[in-house]
What we know:
By secondary structure, this protein is an alpha/beta fold. The chain has one domain (66-314): Ribonuclease Z/Hydroxyacylglutathione hydrolase-like (Metallo-beta-lactamase, Chain A). The chain is built from eight helices and 17 strands.
Amino acid sequence: MTKIQSPNKWPISKFQSSNVWKLNIGIWPIRLRSGPILSLSKDWALFGFCILVIGFFFATGYSASDENLRVHFIDVGFGDAILIESPHSQNILIDAGGQKSGGKVRGYLLRHNIKTLDAAIITHPHRNHFEGFFSLLNSITVRRLYTNGHPQEEGPYDQLLEEFRKRSVPVAVLKEKGRVSIPRRQMSIRLDILSPRDLKGSANDNSFVVWLRYRKTSFLFTSDIGGDQQSRVFTQYPQVLQSSCIQVPHHGLNVSEPLKAVSPQTIFVASMGPDPRHPAGPQDLEELAGLVFRTDIHGTIVLESDGKTLRVISEK
């Protein structure tokens, strides 16, 4: 079972990501050899070389010791924008919020020194999940885009896909049992697509369900799937209910019975905000046994994993 450290109420501005590294450099006593001056010179030459190498590590920001995975649930109101920072600075963005949130997401990435996304994922073509990408594309390089190929797009979705194509971004369509491509050096993490199996349902039910695994910790991203789709996914993949962190589906509006029965040590995150289409707001969050974090209450929420334990950092 994943161990959970108590949430730290740090401001997000104090939590830098890929540009802050923990550089563990051992300091060894240097023993100069006795003998001719030539041997002494070799020792000092070796010492000087070591200093240069250490200086290079500091200058380049390299860290051989940062093995942490970070998942940022960015506060974009009633929408999703989830940044994944893998060890060794692989950056993946799942959704980018709505039009009004695009500038906030772009600013958040740039403040964390992220100017390239190795992958962007659009879970489904609803405005509050994809429109924010319009604000990103002029500032952030995207190397690959993943979509579910759903034909019932909302608003300017086709226009957004064309913007990606103009920038020569490869677009891949994934379905259940697909996988987001990860470089070989990143094989300690896996991003599996658990849904949709087909595109026969609504746009919400056809959302990507993504399971991120890193060593002994895991994260389940559920996007906007409804109760029936949750039941199918949890029946076919019951192990995902043991994930360290589970995103509450559809911004806290749809909590199925299997979710209410998971371990009290599970961390739940709901990306929430006011929405005129759902004035009643969430109904069943209090029935979840685990720790529940809400972006409308806690602001942006960051989870950091060393592969064994999770640390939660909330903005508020």
